[in-house]
Amino acid sequence: MKKPDGKVVLLGDMNVGKTSLLHRYMEKRFQETVSTVGGAFYLKQWGPYNISIWDTAGREQFHGLGSMYCRGAAAVILTYDVNSLQSLTELEERFLALTDSASADCIFAIVGNKVDLTDDCALPPDENRPEKSVASCSSKVRKQVCAEDAIALYKKILKYKMLDEKDVPAAEKMCFETSAKTGYKVDYLFETVFDMVVPIIVRQKAEGPPQTVDITDYKPAKRTKSGCCA
Amino acid sequence: MSVKAFKLVSAVEREMLMGDKNYINIECIECCGKNLYIGTNDCFIYRFLLDEKTSTAGKITFAATKQLHKYLGLKKPVSELKAASALTRLLVLCDNTITLVNMMNLEPVPTGARIKGAVTFTLNENPVSGDPFCVEVCIISVKRRTIQMFMVFEDRVQIVKEVFTPEQPCAVAVDGYYLCLALTTQYIILNYNTGVSQDLFPYCSDEKRPIVKRIGRQEFLLAGPGGLGMFATVDGISQRAPVHWSENVIGAALCFPYVVALDDEFITVHSMLDQQQKQTLPFKEGHILQDFEGKVIVATNKGVYILVPLPLEKQIQDLLASHRVEEALVLAKGARRNIPKEKFQVMYKRILQQAGFIQFAQLQFLEAKELFRSGQLDVRELISLYPFLLPTSSSFIRSHPPLHEYADLNQLTQGDQEKMTKCKRFLMSYLNEVRSTEVANGYKEDIDTALLKLYAEANHESLLDLLVSENFCLLTDSAAWLEKHKKYFALGLLYHYNGQDATALQLWVKIVDGDIEDSTRSDLYEYIVDFLTFCSDQDLVWKYSEWVLQKNEEVGVQIFTKRPLEEQEKNNINPDDIISCLNKYPKARVKYLEYLVVERKIEKEKYHTHLAVLYLEAILQLKSVTTDNCTEATELLLKLRSLLQKSDLYRIHFILDKIQGTDLHMESAILYGKLEEHEKALHILVHELKDYHAAEEYCIWNSENRDMQYRRRLFHMLLSVYLNPSTSDCALVMAAVDLLNNHAAEFDASLVLQVVPDSWSVQLLSPFLAGAVRQSIHTRRMTQAALGLAQAENLIYKYEKVKQRGTPILLSDKKMYKPWDVHGQVKEKDSSVVIRGFLWVTDRGGQMERLN
Hints:
The complex is a heterodimer. Chain A is an alpha/beta fold. Chain A is 40% helix and 17% strand. In chain A, strand 2 and strand 3 form a beta hairpin. Chain B has 30 helices and 31 strands.
C-alpha cells in the first residue's frame, strides 16, 4: 500500500453528507449512502503527493474514534447541513475538541452541504452572499444556516486554537457551501483544501516524520502527568 | 460477498481429548511447528502431532496424533500456553503463575523458574534485547494497574521493567518497546522504555471483552465500538479503514490479507485490502481464535479446527469467475509480497488478462484495454474470439487453461448485432493502436490481416490507409476476404503492395469498365493513369496505354508526359515509339510533342517540325470548318506562333511551303524573319496585315540578342517600307512618324534625315529630333566619361609598371649608360632612370643627379 504523505479528515454530525461529498469528489457521482460505520478512507494523488482522505462516522457511537483519525491531520473539513442549525452547533460542541490531535499547522475548512435543498441554491456563487443582510438570509424559509454563521464559527475555531487571523487563510476563503447531490463546488472545496495541504506536507517532510514529533515532543508531558495523578 | 478464502478442517475431535468425560473443556491452545498443545480446565496439557495431508484432489486434511499429556497438579484450569521454540520451552499460565516446561516432554524445568502474579501474558514478537536465547514476556500483573516485562531464558526468568498504567489493564500486546493496552475505558499505546503514552480511543471493557492483537510491525488490531475492528499503529494513528465485525466478536486473527474474527455463531473473514467482508463460516460455540505462524486455529470447548486458507490463486480465480474484477485485482496486488517475484509476475499478468476479458465481455472497453495492455496480452487471444479473423495459416492456439469462458464473439454477445458491432469497433481501435508497438512483435501478420478484415467488413476508410502504408497483411487470406466483401480497389492495392501490379491493374480496369462493382474511388481512371505514370514496369505501361488513351486522350497521355524524372534519365521509353503509338490519338500526340519540345526542350528537328505541322494542320482544319475565330483556333495560333518564334530547329522552308496560300500572314512573316528575309516579312506585316504594332514588335524580337547595328538595320528597313514611294498611303506615313517618334533611339538620326520627305515639318518630328539630339549629346558625354576613365586607368597601369621595374642598377665610369645624351641637356623624361626608387638624370659631366 502506498504510504500517504498527508491526511485530510472529514468531521461532522451524522447525516450531513460527509460520505456523499467524498463520493461525489472521488467518483464524480451522487449515490445514496448508508450511515458510515467506523470510517473509510481514500487515497488521492495530488501532484507528487498521496493524500489520504478519511471519512469518519458521524454517529455518536463512533465519536471516540475521531481523535485518533485526526491525529497528525494536515486539514480538517468540518461539515454541517445548511438546513440544520444543530449540525453547525455540533461542530463546535462535539467535533472541535477532536481536532486537538491534528497537526499543529492543520488548516480548517467549514462546509455547509446540501445547498440543493434550499431556495438559495439557484443563486450565483456564495461570493455575493456575505454582503446580504442576515434578515434576507433568514427570509429563505428552509435554509437555517447562512454563510455568516459559518464564518463566525471559523473565527471561534481560530480563537480556540489560539491562532492569529493573519497567520491562517481568511474565513471567507475557508467557508464553503456545497451540494454533493448536484456536485456544486465539491471539486472546488477539495482542490482548495489540497492546494493548501501541500505546503504543510512539504514542511512536515522537511521536519522529519510528524508522528514522532507528535508523541515525544508535546503529548507526553500531559499524559504522564495524568498517569501519575490518577 | 463470499470468496472462499478459508476452509474449516477438523484437527482434534472431542473423543481424542476427553473421551466421554464431558466436564473437560479446552481452555487454551498453542501451535508451534507440528506441535499442537491444548490446555484444559482440569489442569492438563496435551501435546499432539499435527500432520497435514493433501489428497490428490488438492484437499487438505489434518491428522492429529496425541503424543502425551501432563497433569500440572493444580486443580485450576490451564489458562494460557505459549511456546518459545528457541528455548524448547512451553510457557504455561495456570493459577496466576507462569511456569516453564519442556516443549517435548512437558516436564517442568529443573530450576523451577517461574513468573508469579500474572493475570495474562504475551510474548514480544519484535524483541528489543537481541538475544536469540531469550524471549521477552509481558504480563498484566495481579497488582493493580501494573504491567511487568520479563526476560525468559532456558531455565531462568528476569524482570526487566515494571510500568504503571492510569487504569486497570485487561489486555495487552507488545511490539518492541510499545505496549498496546486495553484499559478499563480506553485503548492506549505505551512506550515502556520512555513512559510516553498515547490515547487511541475510548472503549468500555465492562460491556465487551476488548481485543488487542499485534498484526505486524508496529501495528495492532483492536476491537472498537460498534463492532469495529480498528487498526492502529504505535504512533496512535490509523492507516487502514476499520473492518466491520458483529457486536460480539470474541477473538480475532490475521492471515494476510484477511482478518478473521470469531463471534458466537460465525467466523467472519474481512479483507485488509478493501475492508470488505469476504466470507462467513457458521461456527457455533467457538471460544478461541488464534493464528500461529500463519495457521489460523479455532476451538470450541470440545474440539480444535484449522482454517485452511485456500491458495490465493484459487481465490482470485473464484473472484474472476464471479466477475469481481476489482476485488480480484486488489487481492492479487495484495499478494505480491507473499509470492516469489517471478511467480507473481506470471500469475499477475494472467489475472490482468482474465480481468480484461471479463471487462471486455461486459463491453467495458476502456477498462479492458488497460488490463490487456498492462497484462501484456497476446493480441491473438483477443483476435481469436472473432470468427475468421485470424489467418488460416496462423499457428496460434489459445492459452491453456483458457483466459475466458467464451468460444467466440457470437456466444459472448449471444447474437446481439449491436454488441457485436461495438466489439468489432473496439478491436479495430485496439489493433490499430498496438500494431506498431512491441506488443505486435512476432505476429504482425496476424494483427494486420485481422485489422484488414475488420476494416473491409465495416467498410472503414482506414482500410486504404492500411494498405498503402507498411503492413503485414497476408496475401491469400486478405485477398479472399476483400473479394468476399467486394473491396476490389483495396484488393488491387493489396496486390500492388505484394508486387503484383499486373493483377492490380487488371482489377482496377475491370472496375472502370464496369465489369465488377466497387465505388471506393470515383476517380479510379485518373488513379490508374497516375499509377501507370509512376509504374516502372514499361511492359505494363504499354499494355494499358491503349486502354488509357481510348478512355481519354488528353488525360491518358500523362502516362508518358508525367513520368518521374529519375526514370527518364535512366530508363527512358523511346519517344519515337511513343509517337508512333500516339498516331491514333492526335490530341495526345500534340500533348506529347508539346511535352517534348516545350517542357523537356528536346532539340530535335523532327519533333519541332512535327509539332509545328500538327499545329498548322489543326488550325487549317478548324478554319475550314468554321469562319469564326473560335477560342480553340486562337489558342492554337498563339501556340504555333510561339513555337515558330522561339524554336530555331524546325524546317523553315517546309513549314513555309505549307503555310503559303493560307491567310496565316503573321506566321509567314515570322518564318521569313527566321530566314533573315526581313524585308519580305515586314512587307507582309505592313502591307498584308497592316499591323504596324506587330511590325514594330517584329523588329524588336528579331533583333533580340543581336547587336545595336542589327536592330537599327531592322528599324531602318521598316521605315523604308513605310516610306516606300510606290505607296502614298496616309496611314503608312503616320505609322512612319509614330515609329520615329516612339523609337528615336533605334535610329541613326543622320540617316533618317536623309530619307524623311522634305515636306515633313520639324514640328511633326520634334519628339524624334529631340530624342535624337539628346541621344547624341548623351552619347558624347558618355564617350568622354569613358575616355577619361580609360586614361586614368592607363596611368595607374603605367605607375604599376614603373614600380615593378624598381631594381637597382649599378653605375660606374666604365659602364656608362650609352643610350642617353651625356653631353646634351636632359631633353626628355625617357632619358631618366629609376634607381632605388629615385629618378636620376645624367648631366654633362656624366654625373648622376637625383631629380626627386
